[in-house]
Specification:
This protein is an all-alpha fold. Helix content is 80%, strand content 0%.
Length: 443
């Protein structure tokens, strides 16, 4: 949470977070019901995104188009670099419920494009879907994350984030797992029942799933909570990315907020990079198949959920920033250990990989959840959407970097060595964070 010292140091930018909150005055069951509706709308969108992208990545890797993984990731994230400022403006200028409903409609459009792309194996249509879904996610995220502090008092934001993160992880997990099962098993079952060509049938199943889930998401969004706009007279950010850069400059005035923003970005970046290393590791380096490869990503996401839950449980007992460096060092050590997978006996190799990825996910969750809670609580309510969209801009940059780095690593070294390179980056960041936090203590 933002400290009084930080507020004093920069009163015009980030005043102290008020302890009172309208959520205290609303019945608990009503707040929880509204939160559940919002989380459900979010969950369905995350599932669709995860299921579709993993399906396309598995298809691409199977066709020898490993570099398509990076292209999908980069195209998906481009809207975060271009429209982050307008996304924050929408979240501040209008009631967040309206933003959520409109963006779920945009998700339905994206999934129609994606369905056509996957059935026809048209990579231009797949990339068009990725861009549209990235735009939807960019516009949706500030409204969603900005709603949590409106529904809950400050002391409950981290636990609420833990629940939201668990929902997100469950959706990602289900999407990743069902992608492999749909392509490898679901299509075979339908062909055995109705006949037809296996690869085409599997792709049609993917298409029908994403459009159906998007329709349910639109309906679910109608039950999201209604709250007044935080800044109804806020002017439109006509300079776009320049507004975002100015917002990031304001974030830099608060050292802890800057650390939280950068570390949250880093965890998302590493997660994106690992997804693009895991697929070739499972399918190409160790020949484990679609379902088993998706299981590796699922294990890591379960770890993130567990780590997020631990972060929520520890929120009132320990200072959040004191857990960052140990968690980062642990994550680096675990990722580095994957470089020695060839030394593990064949019978045990898959289980060891699952365990290591799960544990690295726990470490990532311990970092991500408290950092994102601090990003939500640090800025004042009327600027919360703008700061969260600036965070989304950094997230976008990180994913673009992860796509480029994944393509470079996959072209030059085996995926196991790619994890060693990721570990080195993580350890380097842990060192920088340790130095910054020490200076913060001294000041």
């Amino acid at each position: 949470m933002a400290t009084d010292a930080n507020a004093t140091a920069s009163p015009a930018r980030f005043p102290a977070v008020p302890t009172a909150n309208p959520a205290r005055e609303r019945p608990r069951d009503r707040v929880q019901g509204k939160f559940a509706a919002m989380a459900a709308a979010y969950c369905l969108g995350v599932f669709n995104d995860s299921f579709y992208k993993q399906s396309c990545m598995l298809i691409a890797v199977g066709l020898g188009l490993t570099s398509m993984q990076g292209a999908i990731a980069i195209v998906f994230i481009l809207p975060y670099l271009v429209v982050s400022a307008p996304a924050g403006w929408l979240a501040d200028r209008f009631p967040k419920r309206y933003v959520v409903i409109a963006t779920k409609g945009l998700e339905l459009l994206a999934m129609v494009l994606g369905a056509l792309g996957v059935v026809l194996v048209s990579w231009p249509l797949v990339l068009a879907m990725a861009f549209t879904m990235g735009l939807q996610s960019c516009l949706f995220s500030p409204a969603l994350n900005g709603s949590v502090p409106e529904l809950f008092p400050p002391a409950q934001v981290t636990p609420a984030n833990s629940v939201l993160k668990a929902v997100m992880v469950a959706a990602v997990l289900l999407g990743i797992a069902l992608a492999g099962i749909t392509l490898e098993t679901g299509g075979a079952l339908v062909v055995a029942w109705l006949g037809g060509e296996l690869a085409l049938t599997s792709r049609v199943l993917v298409a029908v799933t994403v459009v159906g889930v998007a329709l349910v998401g639109v309906v679910t969004s109608l039950a999201t909570p209604t709250r007044p706009a935080a800044a109804p007279t806020k002017p439109f950010p006509w300079t776009g990315p320049l507004d975002t850069l100015r917002e990031l400059r304001s974030v830099a005035d608060d050292r802890l907020l800057l650390v939280a923003t950068l570390l949250g970005t880093f965890v998302w970046t590493v997660g994106s990079l690992q997804a693009m290393l895991v697929n070739p590791l499972g399918k190409l380096e160790f020949r484990w198949g679609d379902t088993a490869t998706s299981g590796l990503l699922a294990a890591e996401m379960v770890g993130v959920a567990v780590g997020g839950g631990l972060a929520g449980a520890l929120a009132r007992r320990f200072s959040w920033e004191r857990r960052l460096v140990p968690a980062l060092v642990t994550m680096a050590g675990l990722l580095a250990s994957l470089g020695g997978l060839w030394l593990v006996p064949d019978a045990a190799r898959y289980g060891v990989t699952l365990t290591v990825l799960f544990a690295s996910g726990v470490a990532g969750g311990l970092v991500l959840v408290p950092c994102e809670a601090h990003v939500q609580l640090g800025p004042p309510a009327e600027r919360r959407g703008a700061v969260l969209s600036a965070y989304g801009f950094l997230f976008g940059l990180g994913v673009v970097v992860s796509g480029l780095l994944a393509n470079l690593l996959n072209a030059l070294v085996a995926p196991t060595l790619g994890f060693v390179a990721t570990a080195a980056l993580t350890l380097g960041l842990a060192t920088v964070v340790a130095v910054v936090l020490r200076r913060e203590d001294q000041s």
